[in-house]
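Hypothesis: this fold can be encoded by more than one sequence.
Test: take the structure tokens below, design a sequence, compare later.
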């Protein structure tokens, strides 16, 4: 099965780079919106085409609490970004494979299990091995302040804790993940 692009009320399947892609264990990935790049007009520079930021939101490890990840995914979608939610119980390898297959600009990880140092580090290592360190990695969950500092030192671009507002997360992503111009 291929990833599913979810628009306002209907689902449209999508093939990716000449083939279809499936998530973990053959399940389809859920695409939370069907943003189609369109022309924009800038008064100073003329017509341009921009592609919305593409963000993979993932729940690595055995943690089964995904409400926060879904809320963040929806907030990013509502802000005009293309969001691919991978679902629960993803391995770092599956997350990185999805990000590469979907040509993602960023990966957002939600970890509540206490394994954040291991899981974030593994995702960063796999991205580096694939020469994809330009993909911005950010995340959140129940992460102690001392561990936040360590994650930032290791290369995680942003860490959000409980109570972070959706407006702050959206603003952070807009600031740290640039839109791509096409053409």
């Amino acid at each position: 099965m291929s990833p599913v692009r979810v628009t306002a009320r209907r689902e449209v399947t999508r093939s990716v780079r000449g083939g279809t892609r499936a998530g973990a264990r053959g399940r389809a990935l859920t695409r939370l919106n069907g943003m189609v790049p369109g022309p924009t007009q800038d008064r100073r520079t003329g017509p341009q085409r921009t592609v919305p930021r593409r963000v993979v939101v993932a729940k690595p490890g055995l943690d089964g609490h995904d409400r926060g990840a879904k809320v963040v995914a929806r907030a990013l979608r509502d802000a005009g970004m293309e969001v691919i939610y991978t679902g629960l119980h993803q391995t770092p390898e599956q997350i990185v494979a999805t990000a590469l297959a979907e040509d993602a600009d960023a990966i957002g990880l939600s970890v509540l299990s206490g394994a954040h140092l291991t899981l974030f580090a593994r995702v960063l290592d796999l991205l580096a091995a694939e020469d994809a360190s330009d993909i911005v990695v950010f995340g959140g969950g129940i992460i102690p302040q001392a561990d936040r500092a360590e994650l930032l030192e290791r290369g995680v671009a942003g860490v959000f804790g409980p109570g972070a507002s959706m407006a702050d997360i959206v603003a952070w992503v807009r600031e740290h993940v640039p839109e791509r111009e096409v053409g």
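The two ends are 31 Å apart (CA to CA). The chain has one domain: 48-182.
Hypothesis status: open.
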